[in-house]
Amino acid sequence: MYIPDFNYHKPKSLLEALSILKECEKGILIAGGTDLLVEIKKGVRKVTDLITLSGVSELLEIDNNDDFIKIGSSLTHNDVMNSNIIKSELPALAEACSKVGSHQIRNSATIGGNICTGASCADTAPILLAYEASVQLTSMDSERLVPLKDFIINHHVTTIRSDEIMTGIIINKSKHRTVACFEKFGLREAASISVASSSSVIRFDSENCISANIVVGACGPIPIISENAGSFLSGKSLKELIASDDFLVRAGELASNDSKPISDIRGTADYRRHLVKILTVAAIRKSLNQIAN
Amino acid sequence: MKQLININVNGTNFELAVNPGMTLLDLLREELRLTGTKKGCELGDCGACTVIMEGKAVNSCIVLALESDGKHVETIEGLAVGEKMHPIQQAFVEKGGIQCGYCTPGMVMRTKAFLDECPDPDSEQIKEALTGNLCRCTGYTKIIEAVETASLYLKGKTPEIIEFQPQKSAMDLTVVGKRLPKLDSPDKATGRAIYTDDIVLPNMLYGKLLLSPIAHAKIISIDTSEAEALPGVKAVLTGKDVPDATWGTSPPRYDEYVLAKEKVRYVGDVVAAVAAIDEETCYKALKLIKVDYEELPAVFDPFEAMKPGAPRLFDHKYENNINTHVDHHFGNIDEGFADADYVREAKFTGNRIFQNPMEPHCAIAEWDRHDRVVLYTSTQVVHYVHHQLSRIFNKPLGDIRVIMTNCGGGFGAKAATNYLEILSIFLAKKTGRPVKMRYSRKEMYLYGRGRHKQHITLKMGVKKDGTITAVHQKAVLEGGAYSSFGIVSAYYAGSMLTTLYKFPNYRYEGFRVNTNLPPCGAMRGHGTPHPRFAFESLLSMLADDIGMDHISIRLKNAMTPETRTCNDLDIHSCELKACLELVRKKSGWDGKKGKLPLGRGIGIGCGGFVSGAGYPIYRSDFPHSNAIIKIQEDGSKATLFVGDADIGQGSDTVLAQAAAEALGITLDHISVISADSELTPIGFGAYSSRVTLMGGNASKMAGDSVRDKLLPTASALLNVPADKIKASNNKFFSIDNPEISIPWADVAKTYFSKQGPLTGNGHYSPPKGLGGNYKGAAVGTSPAFSFSASVCEVQVNLETGKVKILNFWDAHDCGTAINPMAVEGQVEGAIVMGMSEVLFEDEIFDSNGKMVNPDLHNYLMATSADIPVIDSSIVDSYEPEGPFGAKEVGEGATLPVLGAIANAIADAIGVRIYDLPITPEKILNAIRSKGQE
Ligand SMILES: Cc1cc2nc3c(=O)[nH]c(=O)nc-3n(C[C@H](O)[C@H](O)[C@H](O)COP(=O)(O)OP(=O)(O)OC[C@H]3O[C@@H](n4cnc5c(N)ncnc54)[C@H](O)[C@@H]3O)c2cc1C
Ligand code: FES
Ligand code: FES
Q: A216: closest CA among A291, A284, A145?
């Protein structure tokens, strides 16, 4: 196992990084390298020019504004889960980050890398989708904000252009009471890839659910936003949701129907569909409990 | 192009030019020669390479060296201050958190970063913190204790001293029976212990193997010209460059070529070997070797393989691909079943498991100018490697030296000669330079030799009172492409069913079948865990049928001391009943069995194993274990030379304890040199759980002999008759008046001064004539058998099918535990390995025979977060054939685990899973189909 030679670029600022990326046609960005280096070592990816983001400090910040939170793409999963801002504002994201790999992986692996790899089993993508996050894509010539749902378009395929860097992930704050939860099922207790996950972000006005985003992970080429579960839940009153499990089970079934899992060594499609149901019910229930408490 | 970096490692600044593709791990190991940091998987899955960079624990195998520019890196070498170990290292040593030691540096570094952040962790936090560090040996239990202890040390506190009650048989002993830290653990804790891959010889080359990408094919031609022309390549070998002789593990089944000739038989079969200036060049050269294959139909399922007309792996032998067929019948099963009140038959299927020692195989060969070769290797069996090399190279043993370095775990994966050992020697010969070869994790899986997957049909009859009247087992072992240990595995699968319970009528039909998959071999419990899983499951099912308690039915049939089994195995010491009673009590069985809510379950399983095989693998009359003790001229220290191998199980320490006890000295006065064919007398090595009994007897005998030589001198010096003198605690003293004593060293020095070198020899051979007279009667024989019982409690999530193993209570009859802490370490390791097998592990192949999960990312093993609370006990027992009454624990500890878990899961969900691994999905399906009944 080895990593073939490549040209190494270490820009010291975002601007420099963007200019190298623009100049260097075959330039590939590396953040934590936990996906990229593994792919190179396994021989499934070839790289001639690596541009490391490790010297770019602009990507390491969390901005907490009145309207939105912006998470720098180079923050590691440990950075994100340990951030007080994230813990209080986006606790379900902190939870998702804490379920990525092992502690050592989380010390290197970045949230930006997790999204840009676009793997179907990426753990932060579903919860960020549920939070209706957007990604900030910056190039020498432009800066654009793309809703995450339009960013990941297939397994390992995103809409990023080769001259762009994902500089941040933006989550708008809601005026409404928001509860959220991330539920993951892996085959062992820790350090295991999701067989399935379910993320829920539910917003309430005083009494009623005004929107519910249920997003299923690892059960399709990309995380799947269950439109049916979401629209089923919205409009329901908090009281009725808490009073009866039937609604939750129904939402779970809808999410399960919306998922498009395949069978692989981690589980069959049938089993995954079943898990989606269970995980979705659990995610919604835990979300509701946050209000009850 | 190389680039300059500045890096601070353990406080020292370095300016280095590195290749862009170099990882931080390789920078540390290869450039700075800080080899304490280990390479286990190279893909971020195992944590063996953990170092601390800028205060954070990272996997250095997936960090580019370039990314460490300007950073502070701490490695295991930086922790100890001079001679003083860091408190974390101290705790790992004292608590027995180190076995093979390969995971240790990574564990310690992770612990360091963790305790810096979280100085007061509870055990759940510790379990969670260590999930990125896989350990295959310890079962994590003692590691977690070590981290708890370390956190106390770091806060300046001293941990409570726990009192342990010695076994009756160890009451009067001073070294044996004591919970002593392993002799090699300080070196392993500090990263000093040298494993094969840590060695770099001057002018050394690297070697790699070309593996077949096709499961079954004829080799039409091989063109190596482009590979040979690649700059940096020094040699390329193919089948035509090596002798025609075959080699293997069991003499009747030597069926492997050094390099494939004419045919390849599985994806991974070895086609060519390359030596070059570095591994990278080797890999590039391998890609340039052009092999023209003519693909043949392949077969992957043993039942398909046995059918007439199925593709044959070997044209001229193993008809119907049946590599080994056993048909044993003892007593008369027809009569036995007729006598039974209740008969039940069921089918069980095992899984394909790989040992996955954390250290990949590695070997280095070097020829000298006298046409002698030295091989450094990570092996369990120096002697068998030595013997096999002597055959292949047609050289006397004296012209080959095999040195075992530290070995980072084996569990059977390193219990036979491997391709690296042979081909590094060929490549070194051809190039005239030393050659190092190591497997990547994937190459380890493809080399294989893991557990045979067995398909078992088991039938058992019982009387109303639970007495077993007859047993009929049919087993089909999926063997893979070559024989390896398989012939023995096929016999063990049958022979070892008889040692735990008494039954007079038994038939065993076994088929080991070749398939186009990696060869299977011997893994912890060799051949017997799947039959034992089947047996323990069926016995509990029968107990339910006749309305009997699961422990009671075991007690009813339990083996008793001094019994000859129906297949002529001689049981001497046996405390199975005591084991059963103890776990019944400790687990609160009577209050739980049948009384737990749905989803919670409790189960029992029993196990046992040989304490060393009664006969060698190839025919020879050499004693199986041998020892020499040499005393320093001033009497200050004894050195024990033994051929047996410490692969992490702790045998060096245990043998030293046996020798020291016999000599009358304390453990700090003895050191061990083991497993070097030139320095140490032959020992068969670490397999079949043989070292404690056999190596222990040899070591004790050598110690006795030195002590006896000293008695006349002591007698003269003390003026006490020799038969009234005893040696212990570094003294010779008068038995009648212990005040009259003299330091041990003084006696030894006086002896040496007058009579010259003071040495003692010891050797051990099993009693002659073990076993019956039928074909295959040798397999299963042993001087002594171990026994154990385990109770397991589980919680099953009825919605997802996921199992959480909550508790394990284990009681083991290992005779006298020479080192109880080491015994617990074996039991804990076996329980966690066993649960990992039952719940997670399975080698998976696609329809072309390519392994789908040859890594630690997709082939899952238990992490620290998965483990149960383990309570392991050692019962009072004394084995007359063993040193100080000792017998085995290492492999036997695996055997109760599979059945105990399967029974607990069945108890929890009210339905049984018959095939391993017991995955959440299978559980859920079983629950559902039960619901539909
Ligand atoms: C042992 C192990 C366990 C793992 N377990 C999990 C798990 O449980 N759950 C999970 O979701 N993932 C897991 N992963 C995958 C991986 O760790 C994550 O996907 C990680 O977040 C990737 O981040 P990185 O910084 O390492 O990305 P890198 O490997 O550096 O980059 C990944 C890809 O993203 C691109 N990229 C990175 N940053 C940017 C940017 N700012 N702008 C544009 N493109 C960019 C790179 O070019 C590359 O193509 C695991 C990986 C390993 C090795
Ligand atoms: S060697 Fe780095 S994690 Fe295994
Ligand atoms: S001691 Fe942990 S792998 Fe051997």
A: A284
Q: Are A2 and B19 in contact (CB under 8 A)?
A: no
Fold (topology level) of A7-52: 3.30.43
**Residue B273, strand partner residues:** B209, B237
Secondary structure class of B80 (helix, strand, coil): coil
Give the pLDDT confidence score for residue B872 in this predicted structure: 95
- Model-wide pTM > 0.90: yes
A54 touches chain B (CB under 8 A): yes
Query: Comparing C-alpha atoms, which of B621, B587, B529, B580 is closest to residue B835?
Result: B529
Partner A, chain B 6-35, Cβ-Cβ below 8 Å: 19-23
Measure the CA–CA gap between B398 and B383, rounded to whole angstroms: 12
Q: What is the pLDDT of residue B707?
A: 98
Instruction: Rounding to the nearest 10 degrees, give the CA dihedral for residues A216, A220, A224, A226.
Output: -80
Which CATH number, 3.30.365.10, 3.30.390.50, 3.55.30.10, 3.40.50.150, labels domain A177-292? 3.30.390.50
The reply to whether ipTM tops 0.90 is yes
**Residue ranges of chain B whose pLDDT lies below 70:** 933
* CB of B29 sitting under 6 A from ligand 2: no
Alpha carbon of B801 to ligand 1 centroid (Å): 30
Query: Which ligand minimizes its atom distance to the CA of B28?
Result: 2
Ligand 2 proximity of B134 Cβ (cutoff 6 Å): no
The reply to whether residue B800 touches residue A4, judged by beta carbons under 8 angstroms, is no
Q: Which residues of B touch A35 (CB under 8 A)?
A: none
Question: How many A/B residue pairs have CB atoms within 8 Å?
Answer: 127
Residue B516 in domain: no
Most B CBs within 10 Å, among A29, A50, A104, to test the B interface: A104
For residue A177, give every residue at least 6 positions away whose Cβ sits within 8 Å of its Cβ, in sequence order, or none.
Answer: A203, A204, A205, A291
Q: What is the pLDDT of residues B360-391, one digit of tens each?
A: 999 999 999 899 999 999 999 999 999 999 99
- With CB atoms and an 8 Å threshold, state whether A108 touches B62: yes
- Which residues of chain A lie closer than 8 angstroms to B1, CB-CB? 5, 7
Domain closes at, from B78, B112, B142: B78
B847 interaction partners in chain A (CB closer than 8 Å): none
Distance CA B573, CA A138 (A): 76
Interface of B with A in 244-283 (CB under 8 A): 279-280, 283
pLDDT digits (tens, 9 = 90+) for A127-162: 999 999 999 999 999 999 999 999 999 999 999 999
Query: What are the distances in angstroms from CA A173 to CA A68, A70, A111, A213?
Result: 5, 10, 19, 15
Please state which CATH class domain A57-172 belongs to: alpha beta
Output the CA torsion sign for B11, B15, B16, B20.
positive
In chain A, which residues have pLDDT < 70? 293
What pLDDT does residue A105 have?
98
* One domain for residues B600 and B720: no
pLDDT value for B136: 98
**Whether the Cβ atoms of residue B417 and residue B425 lie closer than 8 Å to each other:** no
The CA A45 to ligand 1 mean position distance, Å, reads: 14
Other C-beta atoms closer than 10 Å to the C-beta of B412 total 26
The token duo for B407 is: 């070995």
- pLDDT computed for residue B933 by the predictor: 66
Pick from A251, A270, A286, A258: which is nearest to A95 by CA? A286
Q: Are A30 and A75 in contact (CB under 8 A)?
A: no
Please name which of A208, A204, A212, A226 lies closest in space to residue A284, comparing C-alpha atoms: A212
Dihedral Cα B401, B402, B406, B408, nearest 10 deg: 160
Tell me which chain A residue has its CA closest to the CA of residue B18. A5
Alpha-helical (H) ranges within B27-140 are 87-95, 104-117, 123-129
Structural domain tally of chain B?
A: 3
Q: How far is the CA of B861 from the centre of ligand 2 (A)?
A: 14
